[in-house]
Write a structure and sequence with these properties.
The protein is globular. The two termini are 33 Å apart. Helix content is 19%, strand content 33%. By secondary structure, the chain is of the alpha+beta class. Helix 2 packs antiparallel against helix 7. 32% of the residues are buried.
Length: 329
């Protein structure tokens, strides 16, 4: 995949990795195996064994006395260290690196990678700032979606689809675009979204709705192409809903959400689990509609509030160069 090379991608939050358990990840058309050893060190290798191509992620970790671990191939139990070296049976001699490790950038609990490409844009510091000031609630909505990354990004910056895709969940009556600030690969969108009053039945199904006011005053902060951040504020809590997007291959993308909060009321602590469930439903609904679209259909209709989608298209076409900035709206 040539598009978007040089962007940083958040592969995982450390809480998504159990010690000495293998995780398969895909990025920019390549598959990798990711693992964390007993010392908390995270490593990644290409997922294909250099012997006969078995998926290393289907193997297991072999723990060493010093806390390190190596990967055992599920086919012939060849053990590969974090550099991709192994010992051929009967030789008692370690080979040179046979598979090139994926370079990772570890920032505390955040595991980033440029996918082996030269960095073109920096990793923003905002996640480190959020992690310092807010309580981590958890990870939600982690799934692969059978759609290309452009379609995923257009959906995530489509401020009108609340009325369709999420109509039963939020019952938003209309969307008012108050302001869109275009800062090249960084943008802010400020929306006002009046909602119907949720029924008691809806609240019982999703207690997280208690944290949502009659009018959703939304501040969306966007970092092209890898992250969207929803800043939420009400009497119960301050919320940071951090969406991450990854191009797995040309027709497959992954999304997951990290949730942080600052409680203003004891009730906020009681609904943390429900907030995770609520956002998981949101991602599930987005994934469902994205799997049922024809992405190459010519767009013959323009709606109001498509400024975020236009921002995505401009940056996708010009990346890594910054598209000519649109006047803030």
């Amino acid at each position: 995949m040539k598009q978007l090379q040089g962007a940083p991608w958040l592969l995982a939050h450390r809480s998504m990795l159990k010690p000495n358990k293998l995780v398969k990840i895909s990025l920019l058309g390549n598959d990798y195996v990711l693992w964390q050893n007993s010392n908390g060190v995270v490593r990644a290798l290409p997922n294909a064994c250099p012997h006969m191509g078995a998926m290393l992620s289907e193997g297991w970790c072999v723990k060493k006395p010093d806390g390190n671990s190596v990967i055992a191939c599920p086919f012939h139990a060849l053990e590969f260290d974090h550099l991709g070296c192994t010992v051929i049976p009967g030789s008692n001699k370690k080979t040179q690196s046979l598979i090139q490790p994926l370079e990772l950038i570890i920032q505390d609990n955040f595991i980033w990678s440029y996918g082996g490409y030269q960095p073109k844009i920096p990793i923003p510091n905002i996640m480190n700032e959020i992690a310092t000031e807010y309580e981590f609630i958890g990870v939600t909505g982690n799934r692969s979606i059978p759609t290309d990354i452009l379609s995923l990004l257009l959906n995530m910056h489509d401020y009108n689809h609340q009325n369709g895709t999420h109509r039963e969940l939020f019952e938003i009556e209309q969307v008012h675009m108050k302001e869109f600030i275009d800062e090249g690969l960084h943008s802010h969108a400020y929306l006002s979204q009046p909602r119907k009053k949720p029924t008691l039945s809806n609240i019982l199904k999703n207690p997280g709705l208690l944290a949502m006011p009659k009018v959703l005053e939304v501040h969306l902060e966007n970092f092209f192409p890898f992250m969207g951040l929803m800043h939420g504020e009400n009497n119960l809590l301050s919320l940071k809903e951090c969406h991450f997007y990854l191009p797995e291959n040309a027709n497959q993308s992954r999304v997951f959400v990290l949730m942080y909060m600052k409680a203003h009321s004891a009730i906020a602590h009681l609904i943390k689990g429900n907030l995770l469930k609520l956002i998981n439903v949101v991602v599930e609904q987005d994934a469902n509609i994205l799997s049922k679209i024809y992405p190459d259909t010519p767009q013959r209709i323009k709606l109001n509030n498509e400024v975020g989608m236009n921002w995505v298209r401009r940056n996708f076409e010009s990346f890594p160069s910054v598209a000519e900035q649109n006047l803030s709206q």
